Amino acid sequence: MTTKEIIDSVIRLLEILTSWQVVMFFVLIFFRRELSEIVKRLTKAEIGGSTFEFSKEEIQQAAANVAANALTDVIQQGAEEFKDKPEEYVDFVKKQVKKQSEFQEPTPANVKINLVGQSILWVDDEPMNNVYEAGILKQLGASILFARSTDEALTFTARDKFDLIISDIHRNENGKSNSYAGYELLESLESSNRKIPLIFYTGNVNSVNKERAKSVFGIADMPSKVVDLAVRALKKM
User: Which of 29, 31, 39, 187 would be 63's cystine partner, CB 3.0–4.6 Å?
Assistant: First the structure.
């Protein structure tokens, strides 16, 4: 079976099942089997502007450990978050499987990346939307704290030191929709002289106001891209 066929089979299965314990069991089985087949064909990874070569055995072990552990953690997080909402949990798991299938850069295979000691503040009013991407970075050693609003993010940055901030642009804050929340966070950090690299993670790169975003480290609209940008930013620390 092809990668697409395997993933389609998983998604069809998830549409039938409603028990999160059963969903977790089958997703992990299908994911691990497919991951094993994919990494066998990989011999090189380009991460953060650097190219690394590996033996197939190194890739298989490193990729399987990082990606499988990240997915396992995400599925467990979802089980806690949606423990009383099985249908929402099924939808959540489907999105994580799809997100993994769209992950183009083989970041989990890079055994030389070590982000231990690096801290990331992730700002999003819906943090569960980013748990897979955060899970990969955690597996690489980074610590991550989530903030749901600009005010909360500024409180955290005033209290603690962060090496990187990842933020969405549009947020619902204080009961109101704010299409400029990310820009306002960036401008507040700059006006208070808090020089922390910031990455915008948005669903539509073309809609970004380039003038207001000119000082960001980068802009991403895909899981692989935001992880790659995060690694690039943290390598400069």
Answer: 39
Question: How does strand 198-201 pair with strand 218-220?
Answer: parallel
Q: Which two tokens stand for residue 186?
A: 């960036």
Query: pLDDT 10s digit of each residue in the chain, 237 long?
Result: 555 555 555 555 555 444 444 444 444 444 455 444 444 444 454 444 545 454 545 444 555 566 667 777 787 888 888 888 888 888 888 788 777 766 544 444 444 578 889 999 999 999 999 999 999 899 889 999 999 999 999 999 999 999 999 999 999 988 899 999 999 999 999 998 888 999 999 988 888 999 999 999 999 998 888 988 999 999 865
Q: For the chain, where do the domains classified as CATH 3.40.50.2300 start and end?
A: 119-235
SS3 call for 203: coil
CATH architecture, range 119-235: 3-Layer(aba) Sandwich (3.40)
Strand partners for 143: 119
**What is the spatial distance between Cα 173 and Cα 153, in angstroms, rounded to a whole number?**
12
CA distance 237 to 235: 5
In this structure, the strands spanning 176-178 and 171-173 are antiparallel
